[in-house]
Each structure stands twice: as C-alpha cells, then as structure tokens.
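Review form for a predicted model. The reviewer records the input and the model, then writes brief findings.
Reviewer: anonymous (R2)
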Amino acid sequence: MRKVLIVCMVLLVVSGAIVFAGGKKEEAPAVEAKPFAGQTITALYFSATYAEAAKEYSAEFTELTGAEVRIVDFPYITLYEKMGLALSTGDDTYDIVTPACQWDGEFEPFMEDLEPYIKRDNFDTSDFLPGLWEQSGKWAGKIMGFPFSNTPQTLSYRTDLIDEFPQTWDEFFVLMDKIHDPANGLYAISFPGVKEQLSGLWMMVQWSLGGRWADADWNLTINSTETREALKIARKWFDYADPAAPAWTLAEADAAFLQGNAAVCFSWPTLAIGPNGDNPEKSKVVGKWAIAPIPYAKNGVTVLSSWDIGIPKAAKHKDAAWEWIKFYTSKEKQLKNYVDYSILPSRASVWEKPEVKNSKMYPHKAASDQGAVIWWRIPAGTMAETYVRDAVSNYVTDQWDLEKSVKFMENGFTKLLSDYPPAPGVKNTGR
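Model under review:
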C-alpha cells in the first residue's frame, strides 16, 4: 500500500510539472511563468505620465515574468541628449528606449528590428492605428518600435465663457476681444511662451493655414505667405496673455487655466488639465472646461506628439524587453493609461471603449482624424526645429522683423539639407 501511495505521489508530481502549449509539452507554469527571473531591464522614458504609468506597472510585470523593471526618465531636451548618446555609442545601459517620433530617422540605425519578434510570437499588430504607426515607430521599411501615445495638439477652453469654440483664426480673435479682461484678472489666452514650446504652437498654426516647411521631395517652401501669417498670429497671442507668458513653461500655462485666470489654454491638455481639471483640490474650473481642435483657415492639420517604444541593438536583455513592450502597449494597459493618466491610445479599439468615447478628452480623436503630423523625421529634423525656435521667439519678442525671421529659417533649412541630406528615396512625410 505504501509503495502504491509513493508511486501515485511521484506520478502526480511529474504530471503537475508538465503542461502543454501549442500541442507541445513544456515545463510547469511555476517555471515558465517567470522565465526572466533574476534579470533587470532598464527603460528610458520622458519625464511625464508615460514614465509614471510605467513605474506603476513595473511590479505587476515582475510578478508575471520575474524580471525587475527600472524606469529612468528625463525632461524632453535632456532625454534627447541622453538617448542619442547611449544609442550612438553602443552603450548597453538601456534595454528599452522611447524616442519621440521626430527622432525616429536619427535613431533607427541603432534600434533593433522588431519584425522577427512579431513573427516569432505571432503578435497581432492590426489594432495599432496605421497612419500613426507610419509616423511613430516605422522608418525606411523597418519596425523600430510601437507607438504608445497619440496626442494631437488641441486646446482647452472655458465652457462658462464660450458657448461654441470658433473654427477660424479670424473668429477666434473676435471672441478673444470680447473675453479679455485683465483688469479683473482674466486673460483670454494662456500658453507656454518659452521657445521650446512656443515653436510647436507656431507649427500647428502654419500647418493649419496650409503651409509646410518643404514638399515631399524636400524642396523648401518655408518662405511663404502662410509662414508670415502664422508668425503674425503667434505674435498676436501675446496681446491677450499675462505679461509673464514669455517666460512660462507648460506648467505655468496650465496653472493659469486651472486657477481660472485664462479662458483658453494652448497646451497639451493630457499633461495637466485633463487629469486635474475636475479635481476640486487642484482646479477652480471644475465642470467648466472642454477640449477643442485648434482654429484653422485651410485645414485642421495640427502637431502630433507621439512616442514609440523599442529595443536598442546594444541591449543586454532583449527578450525581456520585448515582453515589456507587449505588456506596456497592450489594450488593457492602453485603456488604463487613458483612464488613470490621460495618455491617448494608439490602438483603434481603445478609442471605442466607453471610458474613452464618453470622456472629455475624446475630441482629440476628431483632431487626430483631421490630421496630426510631425515635422521632419530625418536626422536634420531636430536641428531644423532649433531654427524654428529661434525665429519664432525673436519675432514675437520684437527682436527680429518678419523678413529676418523667415529668412533665418530658410537659410538654416537650406544648410541642414545640404549638410545632412535625406537618404535616397526617403520622402518628406511630415510638414
């Protein structure tokens, strides 16, 4: 009897250590459930809600896979420098990086091609918005990452002061004249006046007017009527803003709106107004705000902010990194990203979830559908942005006149395209 009992116990132990997957026997879940135990992967993020969400999810990922996740994050400018240096030198510190989509063309040579991983795991990518993915995560036929955010530039406005938001810039300024009341502490507009942010706002105006920097074949078109008109519009914003606005970052612009001191805020609503607008501890405009696409004259094209996530070629723990990418970009996490962090989804199905479709942030979908694009994604793109920053900043502060500002951009772009020409066959898919 004792021998029978021992045999039965052995059989139970052996059978309990075998499971099937795809018709093949493999080791027990107790082993397979944590295939990366003992590994630590390091992920580099932008210091914003994306990193905050990643930090929250790291413990769950460790429980599922055994891999520890270390999240490192930096502000925008610092992140570009840190990421670029690590990738270009073959530094293996980071197993995962999250480039802004405008950096893709510059960083792609140092990134792992994810297509073999997709095929190996039969990973379904059909839910990622095709147009977004082409601008964020794909470059020159290579899949270097997946987009995990889809943020078109929009604006926030006070619904107790504005019944229906204007669709054109002419209508916009007529309305601002009526609302602007600085004597009583109400400015018509708040916006970040520092040149790193103001330049992006100017871009959306130029593009909405039908302008662009160059055509599809990289012939410059920056010296245009649309460029001049956009500069004039950006300069006019300052007539309706707090005198301190030229020194404001996003934080100050958002705070002015949340404290009830501005009727309209040109910002990224997902970063502060979305999460805090209806929190009475942080907002004086609870229940009195909404999101709208930007005004326009010719089209509704606006600036896209998207970040993609991929694996550096030098990474030490590529398989564990790939598991994190699938985990962080999953439908479940994208929905949680939206609900808890106001991170707009890159998956089509998540936009249709009731929690998204019935929320205040849903107008971003209309802005995205109208057209949200990025500027040049070639290596010269980031340098081109610096010319725009200087030109716009110097014009709106009356240090340069209109023609000097336009020529500065044109001459700068000409030099960049000469010094860093796009690779043969690469078209300008941005503006």
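Findings: The mean pLDDT is 90.
Further findings: Residues 275 and 342 are 6 Å apart (CA to CA).
Recommendation: see findings above.
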